[in-house]
Design a protein that fits this description.
mainly alpha; 3 strands; globular
Length: about 190
């Protein structure tokens, strides 16, 4: 009988412990808080998955509706942040744009202490798409867009700002699924 135990390299080495994501455990390739990624991608919205990752459980319908309203209320960008985004060169890397935007936002909306972490996470989920698309549209189209849309999903919000109109359902679902697949980066190299 062959011994199937892996040896060598980092086999058997624990890098850390997490409750958020597992890779290759529980009979699945990837799970978020115990939920198979395929089930989440097929049946959940990105907002449900964000809630799951941040708050430890899938939301009820009432909790999800309230969460969506919270995210929608936090999408707008302060004028000073919009000015900073306009100053970033048009050929900057998008991750550099977001890093600068988040750093500046932290200066004008200080985090305070650790008890504010949920509020900060919600604010970032809401306004990162606004930062990216505002910067892109300013440099590509020469326009200053309104970043507070009434779209229920972050994917819909992003695509609405990008194209100046609500997106087709298929496009919104495709982006939402993509966001789910990239949502967790604790130990997973999504």
């Amino acid at each position: 009988m062959a011994d199937n135990k892996k040896t060598g390299g980092l086999a058997g080495v624990t890098a850390g412990q997490t409750h958020l994501c597992t890779v290759g455990k529980e009979g699945a390739g990837l799970t978020y808080r115990g939920y198979d990624i395929y089930d989440l991608a097929d049946n959940a919205s990105f907002e449900e998955v964000a809630y799951l990752l941040l708050y430890g459980k899938l939301p009820t319908r009432t909790e999800l509706d309230a969460y969506i309203e919270t995210i929608k209320s936090k999408r707008g960008l302060p004028q000073d942040l919009a000015t900073v985004l306009e100053m970033i060169p048009k050929d900057a890397h998008p991750m550099d744009v977001l890093r600068t935007g988040v750093s500046f936002l932290g200066n004008i909306e200080p985090e305070g202490d650790f008890s504010n972490q949920a509020h900060i996470a919600d604010r970032l989920l809401a306004c990162l798409p606004s930062m990216m698309v505002y910067w892109h549209r300013f440099h590509t189209d020469g326009v200053r867009i309104e970043t507070a849309t009434d779209d229920d999903s972050i994917a819909g919000h992003f695509l609405h700002m990008l194209h100046d109109k609500p997106p087709p359902a298929l496009h919104e679902k495709s982006l939402s699924t993509t966001l789910i697949l990239y949502a967790e980066h604790e130990f997973n190299a999504s």
